[in-house]
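Journal club prep, shared notes

We agreed each person brings one worked example of a sequence with its structure written out as tokens. Mine is JmjC domain-containing protein. I'm keeping it raw so we can talk through how to read the token line rather than staring at a rendered picture. Sequence first:
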Amino acid sequence: MLRCSGCSGGYHTFCLSRPIACVPPGDWYCEVCIAEQVAQKSEKFGFETGAEHTLASFKAKADAWQLAYFATPPSVQQLEAEYWRVVTNPDKKIQVEYGSDVDTGAMGSGFPTLSKVNKLRNRLVNRFNAVHESPHLLDPTDLALKRVLAEDLDMQTVNQVHKYATSPWNLNNLPKLNGSMLQYLNEDIKGVMVPWMYVGMCFSTFCWHVEDHNFYSISYLHRGAPKTWYGVPGHAAAKMESVMRKLTPGLFGSQPDLHMQLHGVPVYRATHNPNEFIITYPSSYHGGFNNGFNLAEAVNFATPDWIAWGHTAVQNYKK
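Then the structure, token by token:
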């Protein structure tokens, strides 16, 4: 006998509209309770705009929130179990913030860029000229000179940074590398060819989605807590979409793992640690959540085999 965690009603597993073989672990809610929960929420799906933060103020808030929520530092497994306990409980509400889709063109990238390296090199040259060639022409109280002299910069350091600025793994360079179809575009499209930054806190979530135009994506975790990713292979995208169309948002959100199993959608997970890349393939649905404060950066690319996937995306957009 299967008992609803909401109304305490009893159900035979084989009498459900979608029969199941055994009683699922954890809380379970009948379709009547789920429909009532959905009806009570008239808001459109989406996210509210949060407060403005500096990176330091966001980290302070994220760390304080997590410290207050957990008595002791949790493991990745404990975090994941608690995340799904919250998601599957319609009466449990928490509020977190997520710095999502932050434009690196405006706010800066976590990777060095050639323009910044060249500025550093020019400052070194100017410092050399100021100190060694004409110190008598400069006011010794000049603040700019003092600032440059105080910096522990040398040409060797700048050359090391230059190596990272020109690396093919630098996400500012990767979309336009030889072999990427995006190199033929003349416009720098934000979020596609210009990376976006993502500043997370515990339980902040990136929902199920595929990339625009079925592009490949690559995400780099600069620092902080891990991310937990879930992915569906591209060959199962149609099945995933069929399941999502059949189920109400409330039904899908309340018991996602159960419904994926019932409908035969393969779902895989990965733990994304700092200094690691995660790559998603065309038409592969992915989503997940952050395990604490972290800083990540992501961009798209398109190898020649993407062309067929891109054509499929265009046809879908026309429907």
